[in-house]
Amino acid sequence: MTPLKLNAVSLDILRQWDNDHVWHPFTPMSAWIDECAPIIVRGEGFELIAADGRRYLDGISSLWCNVHGYAVPAIDRAVTEQLQKVAHSTLLGLASEPSIRLARALVEQAPVGLTKVFFSDSGATSVEVALKMAYQYHRQKPEGSEDRDTFLCIGHAYHGDTLGTVSVGGIDLFHRCYKHLLFATLTTPAPIATRVPTGYTTESWLAFCFAEVGRLIRENQSRIAGVIMEPIVQGAAGILVHPPGFLRHVRQLCTEFDIPLIADEVAVGFGRTGTLFACEQESVSPDFLCLAKGISGGYLPIAATLTTDRIYTAFLGHPSAGRTFFHGHTYTGNPLGCAAGLASLQLFEDNQVLENVKATSTRITERLAVLRDHPHVGEVRQKGLMIGIELVRDRDGMVPFDAKLRLGHEVTLAARRRGVILRPLGDVVVLMPAPAMPLNLVNRLCDVAFECLNEVTKS
Ligand SMILES: *Cc1c(COP(=O)(O)O)cnc(C)c1O
Fold first, then answer.
1. Ligand 1 binding residues, C-beta < 6 A
2. Which of 5, 111, 297, 316 is buried deepest, with most CB atoms within 10 A?
3. Helix 202-219 and helix 246-257, axial crossing angle in degrees, nearest 10
């Protein structure tokens, strides 16, 4: 092996190596090279610090996962203590203390009835697990085996980037290239009235969406292995906030037709919408709850799929009966990640993080009011600390800007010049402060975001 020479390289060399070797996710790489993105070397509070010494307020929680900030003493301590015991041991054939304790804590916090925890390591894997479990459940359930071959999804859904999760996703730009590799699904329109199809008013369109999910479930009840949705807010679709009652409506339909409901709380979980889990807001218990992103406070890649006794029981029986769930990932239930997850849950309590979310999200609502009459703001969407500001060329017709202008991206670059990290979804400027971010920093984030949005839409 060639000797590694990695110590003390200059910033220029790091930049060169990044351009030479690192292929960044969701990134047009030819544009990347010229942009000289900050190379992060440290985090402190709610700021990230780059190799050149510049500090950046993180306005997107490291892509929606950070909860309590960076270098948080209590989480650092928990991870360090675990590191001194063991960094990793497998859950295949062995148990581990941190995974047992985290499973117990999650069951205590989660909506009622979710008693079993299957660990994995990313949002996509947590959803894959739920899909495969739901599919296998119908073949093995005590009422009699059924071969249910499809899932009902919501339009514009995002559940991750593996082929299974892309199959239940509906973001054309990300997903169309792979369409021949995917399994077939049923899709019901997202109950969103930003742009309604011709012939509908806002009210009649939303009424149609509520009715349509019922019709699809009724007409395909014996084929549907599960209904999958992002409760309350569809994140990657552009922070689309569902009207009150939609989640509950879907839950009632799933109960009526005895179809498992899979709630993907990868983005909305852990305080982002104002409650620990979004399902709480409509007093809903899903049959599967997918958790990732904020589960470890944004520290380490762990994920969990929670489910009920009823689902779990269908997988029991003599080992030779083949009812086992044959699925697992090498780093499943990683002890360091679980230690971080436990410390994060403790901090929710100790620091009253949900109280903070109440205060900061209310302040953001007040601040967003200045955009109400902005000529290039088509819609402002907010639920808790998930905010999407949709930029449009013409507000009355909701006419988008030319995508080539990459205006959302331009806002990001302008914010970076002012020491704030943002990342848009197309022309939707996203603000996703960490649930524990204090009020003064949330105010600064709003100041800079609005300033940049004005600068970019004026020119
Ligand atoms: C981010 C996200 C995922 C995928 O999580 P990864 O950890 O990136 O695989 C799945 N579902 C939702 C709703 C998400 O926002």
1. 122-124, 127, 158-160, 230, 235-236, 264, 266-267, 292-293
2. 297
3. 20
pLDDT in tens, the chain (459 residues): 776 665 678 899 999 999 999 999 999 999 898 889 999 999 999 999 999 999 999 999 999 999 999 999 999 999 999 999 999 999 999 999 999 999 999 999 999 999 999 999 999 999 999 999 999 999 999 999 999 999 999 999 999 999 999 999 998 887 789 999 999 999 999 999 999 999 999 999 999 999 999 999 999 999 999 999 999 999 999 999 999 999 999 999 999 999 999 999 999 999 999 999 999 999 999 999 999 999 999 999 999 999 999 999 999 999 999 999 999 999 999 999 999 999 999 999 999 999 999 999 999 999 999 999 999 999 999 999 999 999 999 998 899 999 999 999 999 999 999 999 999 999 999 999 999 999 999 999 999 999 999 999 997
CA of 123 to the centre of ligand 1 (A): 4
Q: Which architecture characterizes domain 76-350 according to CATH?
A: 3-Layer(aba) Sandwich (3.40)
Question: Ligand 1: which residue has its CA nearest to atom 5?
Answer: 123
**pTM for the full model?**
0.97
Beta pairing partners, 412: none
Q: Is 388 left (phi over 0), alpha (psi -120 to 50) or beta?
A: beta
- CA-267 nearest atom, ligand 1: 15
Which residue minimizes the CA distance to atom 11 of ligand 1? 159
Of 62, 66, 88, 64, the residue nearest 75 (C-alpha): 66
Q: Considering the domain 6-68+352-458, what is its CATH architecture?
A: Alpha-Beta Complex (3.90)
